[in-house]
UniProtKB/TrEMBL annotation:
Keywords: Cell projection, Cilium, Flagellum, Repeat, TPR repeat. TPR repeats lie at residues 1024-1057. The lineage of its organism: Eukaryota, Metazoa, Chordata, Craniata, Vertebrata. InterPro entries: CFAP70 (IPR052628), TPR-like_helical_dom_sf (IPR011990), TPR_rpt (IPR019734). Residues 451-463 have a biased composition (Low complexity). It comes from the Eukaryota. Residues 432-450 have a biased composition (Basic and acidic residues). This is Cilia- and flagella-associated protein 70. It comes from Octodon degus (Degu). The gene is Cfap70. One of its GO terms (biological process) is cilium assembly.
Length: 1145
């Protein structure tokens, strides 16, 4: 067994007693220097001056400085008399040898300071043989800068007075007394490689709260200790002991900030216990990494930290990690991340002052995996203290070694000062209980408890097979009191540098720019169709001016005389004379040649005709079409040159971008994807710099599974704004779907860097890491997503309760009862289908979620062959203990469905049934909104297995929706029935049920579902298409009055061509011709390419007796190819009845 660090040999450079000085004469300066040159380097500490000093016998005392390091006196200064102004010049240098191979190591420099004790030499009194001394105070020199690569540094250190010292009262007009100190080493203690690769671990033990009631501060003195082992490289583990905790009664909180203390005993000056510039700052519970950081724990922790007993340490211990130890931590295999990296913090309560009896043995499990997250340097949290039981400890850590039980007496007796002991060899730690049984009995003086009976089913650390005859601790009644009292310790672990570096925001932004460079707006082309038409207009204007000039020369005087008396015959005669003159003079031919080039450009640029025609008939058809266009454009140009005062502006109803989006959405729902694309593209033409329009178009492309075009749209949106989070996420989703995983990581990571509070960004990043089989980072991302969602939910609850005045504020904590969170429902969050006929041979997509759902009862039982294990940092994310076994779900190739229609994306409604949300459901809502159905099924699996989520009503709604997309009506109906059982009053359930019945042809049942949905006080997430379909059913069943009311509601909410058309049809069937014409006119103004609108306008005009308008409406009905044969037959019947309306007869 290794002993604690004992500094013998070259370490003890200066003896601290006369006897040792005689015995150790070999430690002369010359001999020491010889050893330094061969073995180590000298670290020199020089005390230069003292300021604002005073003594007990006046303002000019005689003082001495003693330097101590690692329980060894380095030397005493000469006696120096303080000047009247309180200064003293010491120029006292002491030193010790740094020897990394033995003696004082880098780890000693990390956690052990140099103590400078100032002593006053009192004047001798009569008959006094020896001088009396009085300790005034102590100063503390922190040697940590030497580990940061510095070779020398100076500092002004305060001298902390001891109790009763005259330094407690400073000199008049002066501050606290201080010492000027210089630290020097000839060369850096660390090489460049060591400085870059090493790290510094700081462990701060704050306090244990809610300790058992049997702990009595008025009883016999006790020693409360906490020990833990720092896993290191090779054969060494570093045990750390925190001793001498102070048991306090409840009544008030521990103040923050408060200083951290050195883990060293017997410090004379109370102020010297405090580590310079190191404070316990505290943090909100929700930001901690421990086990008691949820909303339901706030009340318990607030009470425990205010009212109940606690044991306070406030100690910080440091541990130097060499590059090998750092690299070993950063390269743990996924199998070991949850075992060997855990700190085993053993909590021990000593019954007797002589520390021979150990009892109240407990253990806390600190998950160190978050320190392997990119950029994470610090974890702080509260951790439950459990009774120490060998079986449980082995199950969680795969280790049977107990720091207190196996080596506790040795460490305690030999570690009176200092917190970090010498490394323990692995051979000792891995020793089986059977091998060490005799040693334990000897150490405990035969005081092992009868309850510590061994069981043979526990495996030793060094073997995978049970060791016969072992007797691990299987019963711990004293330790059980920790669980009954709810005891927890607050611990902080901090690294100087992150074990896994994180990409800088600048690097991520640069990588995104490399993939998607910013695109400047396109300059207008000088050519093209628009330029060709403009040139044609210009030539027409020029020729018209030339003809007017010629007319003025020939008939100007005659026109001036006659004025307004010109009759039609005179004008016709002048026209004939003008034509004759233009033909005879050759000007007509010149005008034609002048116009010829503009016409050729129109043919090439406007009609894209650059090759010869295949037949004469095709040529004649094109010439006729071209002639009509040229005449129309000629009229446009002439009207611009000579406007007609009588002609008024063209009556148009401008459509907004939101209306265009609604029209595109209606076409998309009806599977008229070509028309939907036209509307989306029209929005882009109007505002090409609006990234929301690009995202909408990209989501439409995702729906029709045109992933390449969707990627172009999302990247175009990102090029317009490189900091737009939604664009980054969608680019990442497309990169994953197209298997560009490196780019996907950049996009997701950049999104989390730009918006660290975005729940969806962290969840998508975790899903990406799951695809990459990176368990540590997956857990990190899911944990961060949960933490942000929890913070947002808590903030929402606080705002709601403040608005209602039901919140109670305390000084540090807030008592807030957990309330169900509500989530906003946006208009675009849901989509619904209009009448769609199921295509033949619909294909199946994503059956993995169905299999997982069918096997969900099996998942709740023990799985014999777990395939994928996911560990959650938070108890609310994963079950306790923090592991969850996922059912083996075979990966199946996804069949593309080119004809899949969009469908509503139901979201939680604001009603009586409000449920908590999970990070996966938040992500599902986002993905469904952008039609990323291929990604949804992976998230649904997580939602099913997540305890915070599970098989909820919304979960089944999403599943039903995805099966409706595949036309799998049987599965959709099954999931809707389960959703209705969970939330019968959810309007989204009945709305989706109506869509299912409507698509399957059961309009009677669909009507009942829609009517129930409309009757709810709370609307469904999307009512537009519910009204449209319900109105259509009313029209089919000839309930025209109900249809009229339904369509009126739709027109008030979101007017469109279809809503006005339905209203016009209902009014027409009710013989309300005027109202029908008004509604149909509105529908025609919004979309004049709808053949059904023209058909009903033709019927209205026929009934009203307006022949010309009836014939025009019928002409467009035929031209747009009306598909409703029954409606076309009705038009023919009315035409025969009134005797007009069809100009073809």
């Amino acid at each position: 067994m290794h002993h604690p660090a004992q500094f013998q040999g070259p370490t003890r450079l200066r003896p601290h007693t006369e006897y040792e000085a005689k015995e150790d004469q070999r430690y002369c300066p010359a001999a020491a220097m010889e050893q330094v040159t061969s073995a180590g380097r000298m670290v020199q500490i020089t005390v230069t001056n003292g300021y604002d000093l005073k003594g007990s016998k006046g303002d000019t005392p005689v003082t001495v400085i003693r330097a101590e390091f690692n329980q060894v006196v380095l030397g005493d200064s000469s006696k120096v008399t303080v000047s009247p102004d309180g200064t003293a010049k010491y120029n006292f240098t002491s030193s010790f040898e740094f020897s990394p191979e033995g003696g004082i190591t880098l780890d000693d420099l990390a956690h052990k300071p140099v103590f400078l004790t100032m002593t006053e030499v009192l004047p001798k009194e009569r008959k006094q043989k020896e001088e009396k001394t009085l300790v005034l105070g102590q100063a503390v020199v922190d040697l940590l800068p030497l580990l940061e690569g510095e070779t020398s540094f100076e500092m002004m250190l305060p001298v902390h007075p001891v109790q009763g010292s005259p330094l407690e009262t400073p000199r008049p007009g002066s501050q606290q007394c201080s010492l000027g100190v210089k630290v020097f080493v000839a060369e850096p203690l660390l090489t460049t490689a060591q400085a870059l690769g090493s790290n510094l671990l700081k462990v701060t033990l704050e306090a244990a709260y809610s300790v058992p009631e049997c702990f009595n501060p008025l009883g016999p003195p006790q020693n409360y200790m906490v020990g833990l082992q720092v896993p290191a490289l090779g054969e060494k583990d570093y045990p750390i002991l925190f001793k001498n905790g102070t048991l306090k009664l409840g009544g008030e909180r521990e103040p923050v900030p408060r200083p951290k203390k050195w883990p060293i005993a017997n410090i004379l000056a109370p102020g010297a216990n405090n580590i310079p510039d190191a404070f316990i700052m505290g943090s909100p519970y929700e930001e901690e990494e421990g086990e008691l950081n949820h909303a339901e724990d706030r009340e318990f922790r607030s009470q425990a930290e205010c009212v109940k007993k606690r044991i306070v340490w406030d100690l910080e211990s440091r541990c130097y990690l060499d590059p090998h130890a750092v690299s070993s931590k950063a390269s743990f295999s996924p199998k070991k991340q949850y075992d060997e990296i855990d700190f085993l913090a053993e909590y021990m309560y000593c019954q007797n002052e002589d520390e021979s009896q150990l009892s109240f043995h407990g253990v806390a499990y600190v998950n160190m995996v978050p320190l392997l997250y990119p950029g994470v340097r610090r974890i702080r949290g509260a951790f439950h203290v459990h009774p120490y039981l060998d079986t449980t400890v082995y199950e969680k850590t795969k280790c049977l070694f107990s720091l207190f039980r196996d080596t506790g007496h040795h460490l305690i007796q030999n570690n009176k000062v200092g917190a970090v002991t010498s490394p323990l060899p692995k051979s000792l730690i891995s020793k089986t209980p059977k091998e060490d049984k005799a040693g334990k009995e000897k150490d405990t003086d035969g005081k092992l408890k009868p309850s510590e009976v061994q069981v043979s089913s526990v495996k030793s650390q060094s073997s995978d097979t049970p060791v016969e005859g072992e007797a691990p601790l299987s019963h711990n009644p004293e330790g059980q009191q920790y669980s009954e009292a709810g005891t927890y310790i607050v611990l902080e672990i901090e690294l100087d540098k992150a074990l896994v570096p994180k990409r800088l925001p600048e690097e991520l932004a640069r990588r995104v720019k490399e993939m998607i460079p910013p695109r400047p707006p396109l300059t207008r082309r000088t050519g093209g169709a628009q330029k060709a038409v403009s040139d044609y207009h210009a030539q027409i204007k020029n020729i018209s001016r030339a003809i007017l000039d010629e007319y003025h020369k020939m008939f100007g005087k005659q026109a001036a005389k006659l004025g307004c008396d010109l009759d039609s015959e005179t004008l016709e005669e002048q026209k004939c004379q003008l034509n004759y003159e233009l033909n005879c003079s050759g000007k007509y031919f010149a005008f034609k040649e002048q116009l010829k080039h503009a016409v050729v450009k129109i043919v090439r640029e406007k009609y894209l005709k650059t090759t010869s025609f295949e037949s004469q008939e095709e040529l004649q058809t094109f010439i006729s079409e071209l002639y009509v266009f040229l005449v129309d454009q000629m009229h446009v140009a002439l009207n611009q040159t000579m406007p007609d005062d009588i002609q008024g502006p063209e009556a148009t109803i401008p459509t907004s971008s939101e209306q265009l989006r609604l029209f595109a959405f209606e076409a998309q729902v009806n599977e008229n994807f070509e028309v939907a694309a036209v509307y989306y593209e029209e929005r882009l033409v109007r505002e090409p710099q609006n990234l929301e329009y690009w995202l909408d178009y990209g989501a439409f492309c995702l729906l029709i599974e045109d992933n390449i075009k969707a990627q172009e749209c999302f990247r175009k949106a990102l090029s317009l704004n490189e900091s737009h989070i939604q664009s980054l996420l969608l680019c990442g989703v497309l990169a994953v779907l197209m298997e560009n995983y490196e780019q996907a990581e950049i996009f997701f990571e950049d999104a989390t860097c730009l918006d660290p509070t975005n729940v969806v960004a962290w969840t998508l990043l975790g899903l990406y890491y799951e695809i990459q089989n990176n368990g540590i980072r997956m857990e990190m991302a899911f944990h961060e997503a949960f933490k942000q969602l929890q913070a947002q939910t808590f903030q929402t609850q606080v705002m709601m309760q403040k608005s209602t005045g039901t919140i109670e504020d305390n000084e540090e904590g807030k008592r807030i009862e957990p309330a169900p969170s509500t989530w906003g429902v946006t208009k675009d969050a849901s989509v619904t289908i209009l009448k769609v006929e199921a295509p033949q041979g619909s294909v199946a997509v994503f059956s993995t979620v169905d299999e997982a759902l069918e096997d969900s009862p099996k998942l709740q039982s023990e799985s014999q062959e777990p395939i994928l294990t996911v560990q959650y940092q938070d108890p609310t994310i994963g079950p306790k203990p923090s592991s969850m076994v996922y059912k083996d779900i075979p990966d199946k190739k996804v069949s593309k469905c080119q004809d899949l229609p969009p469908f509503p994306h139901p979201t939680p409604h604001h009603g009586a049934s409000q449920t908590h949300s999970s990070i996966f459901m938040e992500t599902i809502r986002f993905l469904m909104k952008v039609n990323a159905v291929q990604y949804v099924h992976r998230v649904l699996t997580h939602e099913l297995l997540c305890p915070q989520g599970g098989a909820s009503c919304e979960y089944f709604l999403v599943l039903a929706q995805t099966h409706l997309l595949k036309k799998d009506f049987a599965k959709a109906d099954e999931y809707l029935q389960q959703a209705a059982q969970m939330d019968y009053l959810n309007p989204n359930v009945w709305g989706l049920k109506g869509h299912l019945c409507f698509l399957s042809g059961n309009h009677t049942e669909a009507k009942a579902c829609y009517e129930r949905t409309v009757s709810f006080v709370v609307d469904a997430s999307e009512m537009h298409f519910i009204f449209l379909r319900l109105g259509l059913i009313y029209l089919e069943e000839k309930e025209y009055e109900k249809a009229k009311k339904t369509y009126l509601q739709a027109c008030k909410r979101s007017p469109s061509c279809l809503t006005w058309l339905g209203l016009g049809i209902a009014c027409y069937r009710l013989d309300e011709i005027t109202e029908a014409e008004d509604a149909l006119s509105e529908a025609n103004a919004l979309n004049n390419y709808n053949a059904e609108v023209w058909a009903y306008l033709a019927l209205v005009c026929l009934k009203a007796g307006r022949q010309l308008e009836a014939e025009q409406a019928y002409k467009y009905t035929v031209k747009l190819k009306l598909k409703d044969e029954a409606l076309l037959a009705e038009i023919h019947m009315v035409q025969e009845m009134v005797g007009f309306g069809d100009p073809s007869f």
